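[09:14] KT: can someone run the structure on this one? pasting the chain below
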Amino acid sequence: MKFTPSVKIELTTLLSPEEVRKALTENLQPKEIQTFIIKKPKTDKIFEGYFHEDCFQIQRIITGRNSFLPQINGRIAPHLNGTKLIAELKLPAFVVAFMILWVGVLSLGFILSVVGSFNHDEGSSFIIIPLLMVVFGIGMAYFGFTTEKNKAITELKKILKAQTKQETHTI
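[09:31] RB: done, C-alpha cells below
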C-alpha cells in the first residue's frame, strides 16, 4: 500500500510520434524557478518541464501555488496507427517527505495522547485533535492532487487528440 496518491495512465492517439513530439514541445516551456510571489503566468504554454528524445517530465502551469500539483513523468512510444503516451502522475518528492513527517509527528501525538489519557483518567476530548489533523492533511493531499490530476490529463488529451487507454490508481 502506498502512502501518497499517484496515477499511471496510457493515452493513445492517431498522431505520429513526430506530431506528438511537436505538439508537446509547442505547449511546453522550460521549468522556472519557484518564487513566493503569486503572479499570473506570462505564457501561452500549458506545461513546464523538459522533453528529451521520447521521455518527459512536466507539470501544468498554474496561477499561484499548489504544492499538490502532480509531476508527470512519461514517455511516448509508437503504437498501432499512432502513438502511445505512458505516464505516471505523482506528488513532488518534497511534498511526500513533508507529508510523511506531518503524519508521523501527529500520529505520535495521537498515540501519546491516548496513552496519557489512560494513565491519568482525565478528560480525553483533546485526543481527537491530532487524529483530525492527520485526516485533514491526508484529505488535503488527495483532494489537491486529484483535482489537478484531472486537469492535467484533460489538457494532455486535448493537445494530443488522445483517448485514455488505461488509468491505474495507486494509493
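[09:33] KT: thanks! Strands lie at 6-13, 28-29, 47-52, 55-60, 71-79, 82-90, 162-170.
[09:34] RB: yep, looked fine to me
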